[in-house]
Amino acid sequence: MPSLSFVVEEGGTGMPTPFEAQLREAGVYEYGEVSPGDIEFTQEVRELCKANKCGLYGKTWACPPAVGTVEECRLRCLCYKTMLVFSGKYDIARPFDYKAMHSGMVDFRRVARNVGAAARDHWSDFLLLANEGCDTCEVCTYPDSPCRFPEKFHAALEGYGIYVFKLARQAGLRYDNGDLTITFFGALLHN
Questions:
Q1: Distance CA 33, CA 108 (A)
Q2: CA-to-CA separations, 100 to 2, 55, 59, 90, 182, in angstroms, rounded
Q3: Which stretch of DSSP H or E encloses residue 5?
Q4: What top-level branch of life does the organism fall under (predicted)?
């Protein structure tokens, strides 16, 4: 599937649909489409998750090992025809401005939830993935009980074994938006 890429923030997108308007309202900066069959899923990325630098490995339904093996994640994605990759861009005051980076991450989770809500208007079956995974609940029920809000759930993009840098490139999105910015990514798989 050829990659389509649109910058929502700058207005002209070439895809004037109700969903595009919802992406804009959700706070999406850029988006593009790729075929799930073209995505590289790797154990190498999963190993980065196991290092647990984010502190969520083994603590949430949105992250490994709860999401399944890399192969199970790949097969789950291959059930869909299209992966819409989307981003959020956030300005920071200086390099390593961790407070602004965290604020951007929190806002991007809101963006991902909004994209998921918009998707419900168009598809009955879809899969939402985003940087760092779900934050719907303050404390996740994993592993003791099922997810309380499966309709709001989204797994971590990296937890699926996907190199976000390569995915952004495949979708025609900018991974780096400049020195004083941070960019987060999500993906919506649908038929």
A1: 19
A2: 35, 19, 25, 8, 9
A3: strand 4-7
A4: Bacteria
Query: Domain span at residue 135?
Result: 4-190
Side chain identity, residue 138: E
Reported as a single tens digit per residue, the pLDDT across 62-85 is 999 999 999 999 999 999 999 999
- The strands making up 181-190's β-sheet, listed across from edge to edge, are 4-7, 30-34, 82-91, 181-190, 126-130, 155-156
Domain count for the chain, please give it.
1
pLDDT (tens digit, 9 = 90+) per residue, 23-65?
Answer: 999 999 999 999 999 999 999 999 998 998 888 899 999 999 9
Listed residue (156, 169, 3) closest to 73, CA to CA:
156
Nearest to 36 by CA among 93, 94, 75, 88: 75
Q: Check residue 162 and report its DSSP letter.
A: B
Residue 69, token pair as written in the block: 């093996």
pTM comes to 0.90
Q: What letter would DSSP give residue 158?
A: G
In SS3 terms, 32-101 reads as: EEECHHHCCECHHHHHHHHCCCCCCCCCCCCCCCCCCCHHHHHHHHCCCCEEEEEEEEEECCCCCCHHHH
Q: Which amino acid appears at position 168 of this protein? A: A
